[in-house]
Amino acid sequence: MLVKLAISADDYQESKSIVRCELPPVNYSAAVDLRRPGGEVVEGNWMASSRRAANQTADEEISDSVPDWGKVVYEAILDWNTVVVLAKGLNLKPRREVDPAEFRCHFSLSNNLSREESFVFTTEATAAAQEVVRCLLPRSIRKNNTALAEGIRVTVSRVEDSSASPAALPSVAKVYNPKSHGMRGEGEGKYELCACTMLWNQASVLKEWVMYHSWLGVERWFIYDNNSDDGLQDVADELNSRNHNVSRHVWPWIKAQEAGFSHCALRAKYECKWVGFFDVDEFFYFPRHGGQTPLPGQNSLRAMVSNYTDSPTIAEVRTMCHSFGPSGLTEPPKQGVTVGYTCRLQAPERHKSFVRPDLLDMTLLNIVHHFKLREGYKSTNVAEGTAVINHYKYQVWDTFKAKFLRRVSTYVTNWQDDHNKGSKDRAPGLGTEAVEPPDWRLRFCEVWDTGLKDFVLGSFADVGTGLLPWERSSSSSARRRR
């Protein structure tokens, strides 16, 4: 047995933890258990539980192996009388739903992942697409509030041959009662406007993004942290100390952005009338036309979206994006992206959306920032002259090159891979290696656009110091108040 110190640990879903360990050497099996200092096996650890069930001692060989990431149920969330299960290994094509009759969900009251016979309840799937399978929740479990508070193990099988017993995927997922995890219930009142994003090591820009959009009316923030190690929780804590309603949700799963947004949509459904799915380098902007249009007021974004709340047909509001380049810079702008980057491409590109989470299709099918809507509902496009998104897509090279490490979308090719080179996700003119072009700082610059910069400096800068809110720490703010 090889014993190594853990790399890191993090809280997960309030009642669990995630511990990162190094991969084992090639001549070791991929099995793991946890021990506290001094050799005590962590109580409640599933490996320890399964070993005790087999009457093994801590020094005996571990027979249970870590599930293969390419084939595992990794997350589940309750949605009324159904459970939405997220899984790798379903091998479903993107952008299309499939016949749910192909799938079954299996439920267990046991903590044992490794024995299929512990899954004693089975229900049929009602919807399936991409990495998402929705199944009915067994009636006996639905009424068992104690079990739901502690978590119900769930997995998925594919019915390929009706004459054979389908093999269930390995599972590390449990489904919980949402109320047991602090989610707002129906009748508690919903926020008008929320936002969801997934990020990796972008704590340095989160304050600017949250503070700016909070002024425009976003009331609740769901931050899905995809394995950051740059102090993101500290930034979230500081934002909350300034009365921004931010929750960091640990999302360790690799290349699972679409499923993560499905998960976030269900969380937001309990709390929000509208939720936006956009990135931390994207900023909504209300352009002025020759100075004739009045300056946007506080909560302008919330007011714009809420105009559609009572619509009998509109469930998605789309806004076009302008992509900005490095704007001649070689170092990250100290005052933030909204002030530093001022040159962009002329033609708008992709759009991003706010959606009604209660009006999404049961499959939760999405293409990262766009969801399939329920039948009878449609999207509407905001006129480019009314609002746009400034997408600070091509930043200084030291910031931009991080995109080469990995892409979070399930269906977007990592940039180091030598295929799908024509994808719009890739930067034009770059290959598969993170090599800075000599003229990078001058690229993607067709139109000088200082509109948002001028608005930010005129509306947010401190009169005495000239500092913007995201340049000031909470401690310095506290000193000024004293």
From TrEMBL:
GO cellular component, one term: membrane
Membrane topology: Single-pass membrane protein
Entry-linked Pfam families: Glyco_transf_92
Keywords carried by this UniProt record: Glycosyltransferase, Membrane, Transferase, Transmembrane, Transmembrane helix
Domain of life from the UniProt record: Eukaryota
Subcellular location as annotated: Membrane
Enzyme nomenclature, EC number: 2.4.1.-
Enzyme category, top tier: transferase
GO-annotated molecular function: glycosyltransferase activity
UniProt-listed PANTHER family: GLYCOSYLTRANSFERASE FAMILY 92 PROTEIN, GLYCOSYLTRANSFERASE FAMILY 92 PROTEIN RCOM_0530710
Family affiliation: Belongs to the glycosyltransferase 92 family.
Name recorded for this polypeptide: Glycosyltransferase family 92 protein
Organism (species): Linum tenue
